[in-house]
From TrEMBL:
<dbReference type="InterPro" id="IPR042261">
    <property type="entry name" value="Lsr2-like_dimerization"/>
</dbReference>
<protein>
    <recommendedName>
        <fullName>Nucleoid-associated protein Lsr2</fullName>
    </recommendedName>
</protein>
<feature type="domain" description="Lsr2 DNA-binding">
    <location>
        <begin position="81"/>
        <end position="116"/>
    </location>
</feature>
<dbReference type="InterPro" id="IPR055370">
    <property type="entry name" value="Lsr2_DNA-bd"/>
</dbReference>
<dbReference type="InterPro" id="IPR036625">
    <property type="entry name" value="E3-bd_dom_sf"/>
</dbReference>
<feature type="region of interest" description="Disordered">
    <location>
        <begin position="60"/>
        <end position="84"/>
    </location>
</feature>
<dbReference type="InterPro" id="IPR024412">
    <property type="entry name" value="Lsr2_dim_dom"/>
</dbReference>
<keyword id="KW-0238">DNA-binding</keyword>
<dbReference type="Pfam" id="PF11774">
    <property type="entry name" value="Lsr2"/>
</dbReference>
<dbReference type="GO" id="GO:0016746">
    <property type="term" value="F:acyltransferase activity"/>
</dbReference>
<feature type="domain" description="Lsr2 dimerization">
    <location>
        <begin position="1"/>
        <end position="60"/>
    </location>
</feature>
<dbReference type="Pfam" id="PF23359">
    <property type="entry name" value="Lsr2_DNA-bd"/>
</dbReference>
<feature type="compositionally biased region" description="Basic residues">
    <location>
        <begin position="68"/>
        <end position="78"/>
    </location>
</feature>
<dbReference type="GO" id="GO:0003677">
    <property type="term" value="F:DNA binding"/>
</dbReference>
Amino acid sequence: MAERVIRQVIDDIDGTDITEGGETVEFSIRGVAYRIDLSAQNASKFEKALSPYVKAAERISGDERPRATRSKRGRGNKKSASEDLSAIRAWASENGYSVSPRGRISSEVRTAYEEANAQ
């Protein structure tokens, strides 16, 4: 039995079939990467719309791209993370909390440490 697989590419903007001249456009904004399939006409419109921003921007390539980060609270100019963890573990042990020598420190212990050491 024969099998035929047909790959159909659809323009993500207007829903039309892309039979010739289309392209997959990759772009990134605020640390999030996107990919969109566009006909030649819509790819041209996309590039034209971004042109003034691209001309004014600094080009970043490869591993230099900024990454999106998530943080629950700012760390300011505190010590390095490993020094913070060592201090938290020492404080927790001295104050009756059970913490392992390695691994995650519970939010309960972290909160208690921060409250005790607030300036």
